[in-house]
Amino acid sequence: MSRERRHAPTLAETVAALPPAGHAEDRGPDGGPSPAGREEFVDDTGRRRRKVRGPLYPRLARRLVAQADEFIVGEGSGERLRHVPSGGRLPAWQAIRDRLDPELTPGFRAFAFRSAEGTTLLHIEESC
Known about the structure:
Distance between the termini: 59 Å
Oligomer: single chain
Structural class: alpha+beta
Number of helices: 4
Strand content: 25-35%
Number of strands: 6
Shape: elongated
């Protein structure tokens, strides 16, 4: 009767076996994936939203700054949702427009969402 010796995993093998952790930009206000990383999400007012487009080209994002029913900036990779009032949309856009590129740090990506009631939400998310 032979006795097999069990191999104790090394630290590197243990770390390699761990499931991948979510990236910071994939987390949202409720600890789950950020709105940008989901097909649907429930915003902080309780309204369910479905992603209809995104990431958006800057030209379309600019149009939605004026036309969308609501405008939210997801600061800190979507962890904090900042509602932009209608009077603050243009200044917010001017601060974001040159950084509408996820390769920049911090950069922004724009997404369009729609509610069941038909309202449009422009969600611009900061990526760190």
